[in-house]
Amino acid sequence: MTEKLFMAGNEAIAEAAIRAGCRYYFGYPITPQNEIPEYMARRLPEVSGVFLQAESEVASIYMVFGASGAGARVMTSSSSPGISLMQEGISYIAAGELPCVIVNMMRGGPGLGGIQPSQSDYFQATKGGGHGDYHLLVLAPSTVQEAVSLTMEAFDLADKYRNPVMILGDGFIGQMMEPAVFEKKSESNPPAKEWALTGAQGRKANLIRTLDLNPVKLEQHNRKLQRKFEEMIKNEVRVENYLTEDADIVIAAYGTVARIAKTAIQVLRNKGVKAGMVRPISLFPFPYKAFEEVTQHVGKILVVEMSLGQMLEDVKLGVCGKADIRFYGRVGGMVPTYEEIVTETEKFVKETN
Amino acid sequence: MERVFSRPRTLLPVVTHYCPGCGHGIVHRLVAETIDELGIRENTIGVAPVGCAVFLYNYLDVDMYEAAHGRAPAIATGCKRVHPDRVVFTYQGDGDLAAIGTAETVHAATRGEKITTIFINNAIYGMTGGQMAPTTLVGQKTTTTLTGRHTELSGYPIRVCEMLATLNGPAYIARVAVSSPKYVIQAKRAIKKAFEMQMKGLGYSLVEVLSHCPTDWHMTPVDATKWVEENMMPYYPLGEFKTPEESA
């Protein structure tokens, strides 16, 4: 049975998590994502789950470590400064191969920054964030509907790869209300977790560890993790090509900025500028190939972000010098308007024709 | 012939990595005996700390996590909330519990989290080579307090039991020692009681064990046990600081 609900992004993500079988939530309040813990505090007891407000983000992420290690589907959420505090635990969770879902509703930084939307945690989310060689699987929704679908999928992906999955949104996605369809989940039963800690009943004791003082073994463990990331790169790239087929110029944007760019593209096309967009949905693995392919017929790529040029570096890697790249970014909680994107695109076209 | 003494089933038949004269081996055995006597080996999940006892899972035959430094109570919380019918315990040293993990400890205690903590206080950082611990005594020499711990620079050692006993969440808080057979017997009684409190669902329980570290104290094992009794016990008095009858 599918159901259509009108919800804010934060609440929609919380509901999607519950429908994906998440029964445990640990978190600490921080704006702009407080609707997630508040929703969980109300909803989880209704489905015999546990909501627990932790004493810090540090404690939250280790409660997630504990619950995931115990075999449960578990989630936490926070916003930029809180996610920074969690980085230690996220590294341990990746090292211990524990599945979980972490939501980051990004706000302006660095430091305490602000509470308005931002995309300036891209590096932290996609390149590791904590210490050691690891990656999160990072999914970036650009609508409430997509936030619902990706959250539901995130739990399956976390279990499949035994790796933390991050939903990377921003204050805008979290606060915005939109209708969203909740598809009936076909696969909300997690796979059997024979590695989980449940008490050593009739079996050898299980152990969840991240220490190995033997460098030979630790290297082997790192290579094993790396093989998982390579599998993700092979199987989990998600990207939307929007009006790229006949495009002369392509905008690269994700999340909130991508939906603003769609309006800009309509305006540009009405003015006779054939603009399109490559919208990465998975930020790790990054859709390098989509950028490589688009350069076969497009010579100009405008990267637009709510940062001062983070995804830009991945776009450059994908494009590999085969197209001109320009960057337009707003930060500190400033959101680019479609008019600004139109102006930047027109300027780019004019100055390079 | 009747067998009157043997290795507990929960204690694995392996050689430990501990230094000669270390207190950890005694406490491991007491925990293993307790688990055996309560018949909960297949129903128990432990959390190992960062510190000398990080390899606890090599010695106890139960399901176990290895925590990050100080985070054992948060991991135990996550586990217990998923498995409320299992017995969940943490085993932590003084740096782990009373310095880097103070917040996690205090909040697990005040929530009345139904877990048991075995807290080893040997007044020093053992694994990293003998630096000052939060429980290092005033005047005690360590590799980072070369002329002794001075209060103007480093403040005062924390009395964890006394601090936690002010909270409503804990059901049982006790301090014991393992410096002589008499104290070992008392320690065993307290550890068993702490596990029983959890099994009865009464709340958080913690047993602080005054332990000895001959290596980093630069003493013989015999002198180290004497040092516990002559120097630690006056500052860290033994006893039960909280029992269910006194709980609010």
Give a description of the structure.
The complex is a heterodimer of chains A (353) and B (248). By secondary structure, chain A is of the alpha/beta class. Chain A is 41% helix and 21% strand. Chain A is globular and about 70 Å long. Chain B has helices at 24-38, 72-82, 94-100, 102-110, 151-154, 160-164, 181-199, 214-217, 221-235, and strands spanning 44-48, 63-66, 87-93, 116-121, 170-177, 204-210, 239-242. Chain B is 36% helix and 17% strand. Chain B has a single domain, classed as Rossmann fold (3-Layer(aba) Sandwich), CATH 3.40.50. By secondary structure, chain B is of the alpha/beta class. Chains A and B meet through helix 3, helix 4 and strand 9 of A and strand 1, strand 2, helix 2 and helix 4 of B. Strand 9 of chain A pairs parallel with strand 2 of chain B, so a sheet runs across the interface.
Looking at the overall shape, the CATH architecture of chain B is 3-Layer(aba) Sandwich
Radius of gyration of chain A, CA atoms, in whole angstroms: 21 Å
- Estimate the strand proportion of chain A: 15-25%
- H/E element sequence of chain B: HEEHEHHEHHEHEHHE
- Residue runs with pLDDT of under 50 for 5 or more positions of chain A: none
Largest interface in this structure: A-B, 38 and 32 residues
What is the CATH level 1 assignment of chain B? Answer: Alpha Beta
CATH superfamily of the largest domain in chain A: Thiamin diphosphate (ThDP)-binding fold, Pyr/PP domains
CATH topology of chain B: Rossmann fold
How many H/I helices of chain A? 12
Number of helices of chain B: 9
Proportion of residues in β-strands of chain B: 15-25%
Strand neighbour order, sheet with most strands of chain B: 2-1-3-4-6-5-7
CATH architecture of the largest domain in chain A: 3-Layer(aba) Sandwich
Query: Helix share of residues of chain A?
Result: 40-55%
Classify the helix fraction of chain B into a percent range: 25-40%
Q: Return the average pLDDT of chain B rounded to an integer.
A: 97
Helix and strand pattern of chain A: EHEHEHEHEHEHEHEEHEEHEEHEHEH
